[in-house]
Amino acid sequence: MRAKITYFVLAAVLVVYFVLVGSRGVMLIEQGTVLTVAFGVAVLILPFIGLWFLWHTTQFARKAGILARELEAEGGLPVDELRRTPGGRIDRDSADEVFAKRQAETEDAPGDWRTWFRLAVAYHDARDTPRARKAMQRAIALHDNGPVRT
């Protein structure tokens, strides 16, 4: 719950920032010189890129949450079997072992979104965020549309 509150607070701050940046872009355009109009247009593009990114990130998180709740209802969420250091960090060798198991499960059932979800969690635990995101995107696509071509 704390993560959701933090996310929405940061998203609200970003939207306020985009509005402020957009207003500065409009002010530059209103100056009317070639240079200020060019800068104003460039400044106006940034909030649109930011809003697009925020929208896609929010949709990704929402869909991943739906999959997590569905998998939890089925009793299929991955069990935390990772060893931890005395400081609470995940042991790298332990994360690699669990990852190998999840990867084998995914190779055995590449069309099942559940295995891709669990693989995404294993990537995340192994601190490989880009691959975790791609695996979760695959899980979402399989869940929403059925089989996905590689």
TrEMBL record:
TM spans (from-to): 7-29, 35-55
Protein keywords: Membrane, Transmembrane, Transmembrane helix
Protein name per the record: Tetratricopeptide repeat protein
Lineage of the organism: Bacteria, Bacillati, Actinomycetota, Actinomycetes, Kitasatosporales
